[in-house]
UniProtKB/TrEMBL annotation, chains A, B:
Gene Ontology CC entries for this record: mitochondrion
UniProt-recorded name of the protein: Protein phosphatase, Mg2+/Mn2+ dependent, 1H
Gene Ontology molecular function: [pyruvate dehydrogenase (acetyl-transferring)]-phosphatase activity
Listed Pfam families: PP2C
Location of the region described as Disordered in the Swiss-Prot/TrEMBL record: 104-128
PROSITE patterns: PPM_2
Segments forming domain PPM-type phosphatase: 115-506
Organism: Dicentrarchus labrax
């Protein structure tokens, strides 16, 4: 996340791998390190390899060595930045988890994770649930990218923990999700609403109802009377989306709490993919991006959250809670800084109500620094941060002030669902996830063309092809080192940022439950 | 806007045309009526005809009698509701205005409208600006629909006034808009930025700069030094959008002020179309809708603002300003009312951070009435209003309480631009505007098919065809009176609401400036 946070990272002094210290926190912290820096576990790197990977001159591209380590033959590649931070602040995680329903009779959620990896590798091979238990287990495929800033601590922590929070929230609704054709009951412990019941789902319903301690079977004396008010119907899909949304919030709360006792530096964006019961869910908080490439066509699966895309939300918040601006910022936007000599003149502006621009007479108050300032990759909130959603950043303040950034940041993802099992996918249909290092220099169309072209030239049975394609993408975005820096096609500048890319083939979803 | 506002309209007692009173304000008002009830001026109806049109049993469809009254051979038709309110609460306005630039040397905007109709008819024929003055005049085509609720007063006022506010705001930037290739200067009175200057626009620029009292010609001793900070470039289109946005706000402020001294009842939605310098601008605040039909394909030109579509904005506001809920409402949404016996159980909910749903343990506070309640056309904010953007409603309160609705309503439109002059349009390519009475019962696709089919069967040279097509649409949405009510195709229920429809052919835009 190049130059995203105006912090004194350049003053970095510690050794990268110095035992016990994550080394990228310039101010230093005497608190213990709970989540030491590393590269993604699935890369299977030795400490030596990790050290070698952090060569800001050579910028070696790391790829997945053993294709079978990840589910669905997922491909992965990454490269470190060109020197903006000593460590690679991107992190990645991929897991296949089995989520077991909450024990019957427990009325409050059990906060002990009842999840387990399906095997010693995250690819999920072996040890699935027993056939007889399947109704009460969910198999969850999970891929995630985190792009850190102002330190790697939060990105590392999130890469270790976020999937457990998602599993915990799904656990609360496992029983419902496992019962096809049963709409989620509005209130747990009451008669569920059922629709289009098949004999199988009727049996499942009866079982689910009894497990949930419902008042009784339909028609029994304890059946509650029919209600005459309308009731909104909530889909299974909405429950999964709600689970992912609330997991992000819990993750952020956990980071806040742990920051009080451990050294966990910075903040990070988060882009996660969950595959569950035939659907892909893409949750995004930040400026990473996911696209599906299907038959060569691009289907965007995320939108970026930046000072520009979230301007109106932030201006609205500042307008309603002006104390958050500490008397140093204005919620209005101007095309550039206002100068004192311009007071009394008419200048272009816009506020939270406006997509367009108009002229206003400049007052003294307009001389304050704008809440949102700059364009494109240089746009900043409170002159500090260039991304408006993500995890962490609880202690981040405007330089040399007591103005906190966090109230303007949201940890809530936007979640998009894609009904994977409804389509037949070919071997070249993929979901591409990348941190902004990729998308800053390559358009969706360029990525789609590169991947489609690359895969077409591979042996369709080569399981390594998706990692090779990911490596190709990272190479195209990093470029090659020429006299004056990293260059990509058409002599454009390559990305000097950390770059991480997943390529997930979709045809495997056809066969999964 | 059927059953939109839970008000005692049914208790209506006054005579509809009773002189001086608009008659639809059940509580009555002793204040004078400034904007008496009427039907759109361009219909040219006599008082008798207006009275006859308000027949809730026959529901006669009113159409434009003289095609030439409106620009571009625009078609128009309307029908009154089936009895929900005595008056037709929809209003419409169509004008062609000439906007003259603000006089040179006046540094603050002149609030006297420097607009005039181009002729005694709104079709704009005759008396255009003199050729030599053209640089400093803008010709503005304007169509608008207003859908009133809880009285017709605000809808009538807005139909008389909103275009003047738009013209006033455009007047401030007329000089800039009239100078092609000149980007709007960030600060008025300073050197403008010019791009791709042709000799003509260079002359225009010099003239504009001198008129604006700029520091001097480029290169002169008084030229300010080059700046090294970045400056956002603002387009002409953004200026027009900003003008429309701010005009809506000014309109709402004027209504608030006049409500203090005049009897102006209720509130209204507003859907306006502005054609200016080759582009169509569609501004929408409410639940009316505009679509373009081009070669039979639908291009949506507006989105509706309802309690459901704006749930998260409203919940966010309530979360941050809980006093607006008066201790009687909760910002959380539940699928239905929570009952006291459910306290302690887990129920589905969502807050402003969530698109999905999750379970929470019900507390006493959750027994309050939800800020957003109901589904589809029955969804309400604060149990009162079913539309979340529009004009007026300043005095509207939750029934039997002191909780005001207005803080949750926005008068800000969403404005979409369509580059009309960039396309060649055929005679059957049209922009359709309709109040929700139309769209409640007909889909975009049904409207597009009906219009396309109807126009294909007309003589292409018949200027009356667009009004005939509008009449056909209103007929399809109203239906015919059968034993049990108004019925449309496939024995569906027709709309019992007021219905108003414009059909604006786009081919005339090809030839306009």
């Amino acid at each position: 996340m190049l130059t995203r946070v105006k912090s004194a990272v350049a003053n970095f002094m510690g050794g990268m791998m110095a035992g016990g210290s994550n080394g990228d926190h310039p101010g230093g912290s005497d608190m213990p390190l709970k989540y030491p820096y590393s590269r993604p576990e699935f890369l299977g790197l030795s400490p030596d390899e990790i050290e070698c990977s952090a060569d800001h001159i050579a910028r070696p591209i790391l790829i997945l060595k053993e294709t079978k380590r990840l589910p669905w033959s997922t491909g992965y590649a990454e490269v470190i930045n060109a020197g903006k931070s000593t460590l690679n602040e991107d992190q990645a995680c991929c897991e296949v988890l089995v989520v077991k329903r909450r024990p019957a009779g427990s009325s409050t959620p059990n906060r002990t994770p009842l999840t387990r990896r399906r095997s010693s590798l995250p690819n999920g091979e072996g040890m699935g649930p027993r056939e007889s238990d399947k109704l009460l287990y969910l198999t969850l495929h999970y891929w995630a990218l985190f792009d850190g800033h102002a330190g790697s601590g939060v990105a590392v922590a999130a890469s270790r923990l976020l999937h457990h929070h998602i599993a915990l929230h799904l656990q609360e609704v496992t029983e419902i999700l496992c019962t096809p054709n049963l709409l989620p009951p509005t209130c747990l412990g009451e008669e569920p609403i059922n629709h289009h019941l098949t004999p199988t789902s009727q049996r499942a319903l009866t079982r689910a109802a009894s497990l949930r301690g419902a008042a009784g079977a339909p028609g029994s004396p304890s059946t509650p009377p029919t209600r005459f008010f309308t009731e909104k119907k909530v889909s299974h899909e909405s429950l999964v989306i709600g689970a992912i949304e609330n997991a992000f919030k819990d993750m952020d709360v956990q980071i806040e709490k742990e920051k009080a006792v451990y050294n966990i530096s910075g903040g990070c964006t988060a882009l996660v993919v969950v595959y569950l019961l035939g659907k892909l869910y893409v949750g995004n908080a930040g400026d990473s991006r996911a696209i599906i490439i299907r038959a060569g066509e691009v289907i965007p699966m995320s939108t970026e959250f930046t000072p520009e895309s979230e301007r109106r939300r932030l201006q609205f918040l500042a307008y309603m809670q002006p104390h958050l601006l500490g008397n140093e910022f204005t919620h209005l936007e101007f095309p550039r800084r206002v100068q004192r000599k311009e007071v009394g003149k008419r200048m272009l502006y816009r506020d939270f109500t406006m997509a367009g621009w108009a002229y206003k007479t400049i007052e003294d108050d307009d001389l304050k620094f704008p809440l949102i300032y700059g364009e494109g990759k240089k746009a900043r909130v409170l002159a500090t941060i260039g991304v408006t959603r993500g995890l962490g950043d609880h202690n981040l303040k405007v330089h040399d002030s007591n103005i906190y950034i966090k109230p303007f940041l949201s940890c809530c993802p936007e979640v998009k669902a894609y009904p994977l099992a409804q389509y037949e996918h070919e071997a070249d249909d993929v979901l591409v996830l990348g941190t902004d290092g990729l998308w800053d220099v390559l358009s969706n169309q360029e990525v789609a063309e590169a991947v489609t072209c690359f895969l077409a030239n591979c042996d369709p049975d080569d399981q390594h092809r998706y990692t090779m394609a990911a490596q190709d993408l990272v190479m195209r975005a990093r470029g090659v080192l020429k006299d004056r820096g990293w260059r990509i096609s058409n002599d454009r500048l390559g990305s000097g940022d950390d770059i991480s890319v997943y390529i997930i083939p979709l045809m495997y979803g056809n066969k999964q439950n």
